């Protein structure tokens, strides 16, 4: 008797049907399919370091919109997306035990927590056939000219080795999907904000529209000159929110870029878009290589920075009440919109690490709760880099905040727009035990 092949596709950061090789694989191998998404939760680690109990409003809305769009896409295949507010281990265990699941499909995770879920489930159900693919990368692992254990220690070394590799064209969407299994679990209905209340609408359709709009302008030909702007719609590509949730694949973006170059010509700026995607690629393999070390204080360098924890300083940083108006403006923008430019991220990270003397993990964790484009590998890898415990051979990076203000906001338009000069507070207002420190002339 032929055993029916029932499978679960566990969607995480691959919320699309286009250029989804793993979904193609499931379509070819299964008789029946359950499509699953588990809403991300704040872990105890994140609560400790971010001092937050839920994701930021903007990030939640972007996730909800992206999941809703995926659900609509799957309905066109007569499929149902099961949206659950429980831990993935709990849900997967229930589905495997109650619906004769024989196959599990999921991303080849950059995050060690998600990979641990996969490992645990496979240990509990040894007969389960687990298929994992790197679903959001430019290259497959088999293309890399080195074993993962020998990942180059710097981005430059990595880039020189992978730049000659061919980036494959994106694949089409599946023509059909296996029929859905009737699961007797109540799917969560995610609240959606009105479109005008969101900075960027989530989902695959919105991702494609945004990319098409960007390449319909000449912005790509000037990208390298404008990419460090603090607050301008087309100064940078803004692809990252949709890349982070897998609403669009990097291969799709490269294919659109090549089409643009065929019509408008190549230059250093169009190359720089691929250059930035290669940074993202490096951090993905970096996270795969170092796993839980990505979150450790001493980082991959096993070098413990000199820090102290001042609760008042961390709160100043979060709220944008530091002595540095450029930092304050950036943090207020992040808190309100979930967006922060690449230059802004470097400035606020440098401030937290060097001016405030805090453990870099507090900043990385707070970013995780707020950023629309939160990507575990890029976020934690970049924070390690700036803190001097990661892939930067030159050690930690400290920016002169006054000089950076002169370079990137000389007229202070950005600072004024985001009220960076409001509620400025001296970092020495209290000591480590929160005892007030009196000014010298009042002692």
Automatic annotation (TrEMBL):
This is Cryptochrome DASH. May have a photoreceptor function. Keywords: Chromophore, FAD, Flavoprotein. InterPro entries: Cry_DASH (IPR014133), Crypto/Photolyase_FAD-like_sf (IPR036134), Crypto/Photolyase_N_sf (IPR036155), Cryptochr/Photolyase_FAD-bd (IPR005101), Cryptochrome/DNA_photolyase_1 (IPR002081), DNA_photolyase_N (IPR006050), Rossmann-like_a/b/a_fold (IPR014729). Binds 1 5,10-methenyltetrahydrofolate (MTHF) per subunit. The lineage of its organism: Bacteria, Pseudomonadati, Pseudomonadota, Gammaproteobacteria, Vibrionales. It comes from Vibrio porteresiae DSM 19223. It comes from the Bacteria. Its cofactor is (6R)-5,10-methylene-5,6,7,8-tetrahydrofolate; FAD. Belongs to the DNA photolyase class-1 family. Residues 5-138 form the Photolyase/cryptochrome alpha/beta domain.
């Amino acid at each position: 008797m032929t055993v029916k092949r029932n499978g679960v596709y566990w969607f995480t950061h691959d919320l699309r049907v286009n250029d989804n090789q793993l979904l193609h694989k499931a379509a070819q191998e299964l008789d029946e399919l359950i499509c699953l998404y588990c809403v991300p939760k704040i872990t105890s680690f994140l609560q400790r370091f971010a001092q937050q109990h839920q994701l930021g409003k903007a990030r939640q809305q972007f996730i909800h919109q992206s999941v809703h769009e995926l659900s609509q896409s799957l309905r066109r295949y007569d499929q149902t997306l099961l949206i659950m507010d429980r831990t993935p281990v709990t849900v997967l265990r229930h589905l495997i035990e109650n619906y004769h699941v024989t196959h599990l499909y999921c991303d080849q995770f950059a995050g060690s927590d998600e990979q641990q879920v996969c490992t645990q489930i496979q240990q509990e159900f040894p007969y389960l056939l687990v298929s994992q693919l790197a679903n959001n990368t430019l290259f497959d692992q088999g293309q890399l000219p080195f074993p993962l254990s020998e990942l180059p220690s710097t981005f430059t070394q990595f880039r020189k080795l992978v730049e000659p590799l061919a980036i494959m064209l994106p694949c089409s969407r599946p023509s059909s999907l296996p029929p859905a299994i009737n699961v007797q679990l109540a799917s969560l209905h995610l609240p959606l904000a009105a479109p005008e209340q969101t900075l960027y609408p989530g989902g695959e359709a919105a991702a494609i529209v945004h990319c098409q709009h960007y390449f319909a302008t000449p912005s790509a030909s000037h990208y390298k000159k404008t990419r460090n702007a603090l607050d301008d719609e087309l100064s940078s590509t803004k692809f990252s929110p949709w890349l982070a949730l897998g609403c669009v694949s990097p291969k799709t973006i490269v294919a659109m870029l090549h089409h643009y170059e065929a019509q408008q010509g190549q230059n250093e700026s169009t190359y720089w878009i691929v250059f930035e995607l290669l940074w993202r690629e490096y951090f993905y393999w970096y996270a795969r290589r170092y796993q839980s070390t990505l979150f450790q204080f001493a980082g991959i360098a096993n070098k413990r920075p000199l820090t102290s924890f001042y609760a008042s300083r961390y709160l100043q940083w979060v709220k944008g009440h530091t002595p540095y108006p450029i930092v304050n403006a950036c943090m207020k923008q992040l808190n309100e919109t979930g967006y922060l430019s690449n230059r802004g991220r470097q400035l606020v990270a440098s401030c937290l690490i060097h001016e405030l003397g805090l453990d870099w993990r507090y900043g990385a964790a707070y970013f995780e709760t707020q950023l629309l484009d939160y990507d575990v590998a890029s976020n934690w890898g970049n924070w390690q880099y700036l803190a001097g415990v990661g892939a930067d051979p030159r050690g930690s990076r400290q920016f002169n905040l006054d000089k950076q203000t002169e370079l990137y906001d000389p007229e202070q338009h950005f600072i004024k727009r985001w009220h960076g000069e409001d509620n400025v507070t001296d970092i020495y207002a209290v000591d480590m035990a929160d005892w007030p420190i009196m000014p010298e002339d009042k002692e």
